[in-house]
Amino acid sequence: MLLDIIPGDTLQKTELSVSAIDNFLDKIFDHAVTLGLKLIAAAIVFIIGRWVIKWLRKFIDRFLERRQIEATVKSFLDSLANITLQLILFLLIVNILGLSMTSFAAILAAVGLAVGMAMKDNLSNFAGGVMLLINKPFKLGDRIVAQGMDGAVQAIGILYTILLTGDNRTIYIPNGPLSTGTITNYSTQKERRIDITFTLGYGADVDEVKSILQSVIKNNPLVKNTPAPFIGVTMLNNGTIDVTIRVWVDSGDYASVNVDLNEKVYAAFRENSIYGPAVTSIKMIKD
Description:
Main location: membrane
Domain Mechanosensitive ion channel MscS C-terminal: 194-274
Shape: rod-shaped
Number of strands: 8
Number of helices: 8
GO molecular function: mechanosensitive monoatomic ion channel activity
Family: Belongs to the MscS (TC 1.A.23) family.
Number of domains: 3
Order of helices and strands: HHHHHEEEEHEEHEEH
Strand content: 15-25%
Subcellular location: Cell membrane
CATH architecture of the largest domain: Orthogonal Bundle
Structural class: alpha+beta
Radius of gyration: 39 Å
Oligomer: single chain
């Protein structure tokens, strides 16, 4: 027999090697089966989780709609809920796969720190967006002046607020500076006051001027009678006087009434030979 001529110690070592290989293969098979089951479980949880997230987002949307929440706030809360639920699902799948949560959390914290340092301005804008949605200094369609920009609010995003200017330009304002800066909202009040000052020379007949202004104001149907329009001399300057009118109009009529009053007053003054002081220009010439 061939086995009879093989030394005993050699045969024993061969049997041990075969046994070690068998054990190694068994362990690989067991790990493969375990990993396969985990992958199957993770895939099932992923599919079910995606369906649950979709259902929850629809439920939240219907809930907010019943509460008549603004579209901008709804969009923001939907995005926030989606990110939160997706993160929970991701962590659940990581746990099912048996990955070390401690090591994973440390890696996630380091990545989060690096991303936070690189995106600190965006994080500030995100926080600003939250504050704008909570405080609500304006809403969609309002005309505001902020950060040196004047326009109607088109959208309030997570990072930027979009304005549309009167000459049809789209302006993106970061929410961070916007939430901490001064905001003038021209749309919160139903009525606005128009103040127009006319500078006239000394010697002008104030009573005649006031009568002309009163007639122009009375002939404009958009000017409100309450509060009553104001007409009076508001300043005595060096050689000139300032006559000011103050009238109230609906906020939506402000621009058109302002232009109309200026044009009608100019025409009436010209017709009655009332002019402002002559402007003298002196040019110094060096020899």
